[in-house]
Amino acid sequence: MNRGLFAFLLLFYSFLAVAHPVPDLPVRAQFNFKGEVVIRVEVDPRCFVEDAENEPYLVNGVYQSLSKKDLAELEKKTGELIAKSIGFHFDPAISLEPKFTYYYTTLESKPLDKKDQTPVVIQAEWKFKIPESVKTYQLKALPAGRFSVLFINRVIGEKSDLNVLFPGEASYKLDLSLLTRIRKSKQ
After folding, report:
1. pLDDT of residue 11
2. Across the 187 residues of the chain, what is the mean pLDDT of every consecutive 10-residue run?
3. Is the separation of the CB atoms in 59 and 106 below 8 Å?
4. pLDDT score for 135
5. What is d(CA 76, CA 85) in angstroms, rounded to the nearest whole number?
6. What is the DSSP string of 113-179?
7. Please, which residues have CB within 8 angstroms of residue 61's CB and are 6 or more apart in sequence?
8. What's the pTM?
9. 56 in helix, strand or coil?
10. What DSSP character marks residue 50?
11. Residue 109 region, left (φ>0) first, then alpha (ψ -120 to 50), else beta?
12. From residue 154, how far is each of 9, 79, 122, 138 by CA, in Å?
């Protein structure tokens, strides 16, 4: 192999090894036939700094040394970021405000391993039950948000395609009428 090409490839792959992708906000919503809903938002702590792309990941070695106070602060920032970045809309409107519980995983909701360099993200999970009257669900990437919102809806186990919203955009309205019909037939 040509030495110049080899040097270029070595530098290129070295750059990729240390480059960090721009974070986004993945949202996974699951609806079951009983009307139970689980909405999970994955938040990369790099979202809390101005230059998120150049910020290193929070890694397991650092995460393990954080105090309860530090974790509570991360969770508070996570809730604030979600409130500023994502709108959860139902038709007709429901009077529930998102109430999240928090836990920590690595990327894509995978469990943390024991490696010190494993990236750590925060999972914000909201569980609730929707009234039978709800016909649709829609996600909005709020204009004040800085990051794209990736979302996947799962209705009675059927997964929809991955979709991307940029700040100021709204998703399609997910038809939940099938859930209502199933719930009524089970009564």
Report:
1. 39
2. 48 46 93 92 97 93 96 98 97 93 93 92 97 93 97 86 95 87 71
3. no
4. 93
5. 14
6. -S-TT-B-EEEEEEEEE--TT--EEEEEE-TT--S-EEEEEEETTEEPPPEEE-TT-BPPPEE-HHH
7. 116, 117
8. 0.85
9. coil
10. T
11. left
12. 41, 23, 21, 13
Instruction: Identify which of 51, 60, 74, 72 has the alpha carbon closest to the alpha carbon of residue 112.
Output: 60
Q: According to the model, what pLDDT value does residue 186 have?
A: 66
Query: Among residues 1, 23, 34, which one has the least CA distance to residue 130?
Result: 34
Report the percent of the chain where pLDDT is more than 90.
Answer: 68
Structure tokens at 163: 């979709």
Contact 165, 182 (CB under 8 A): no
Lookup: tokens for 136: 């649709």
- At 34 the three-state DSSP class reads coil
| Closest C-alpha to 74, from 53, 50, 47 | 47
Please tell me whether the peptide bond between 92 and the residue prior to it is cis, using omega within 30 degrees of 0.
yes
Take residue 116 and report the two structure tokens written for it.
């010190």
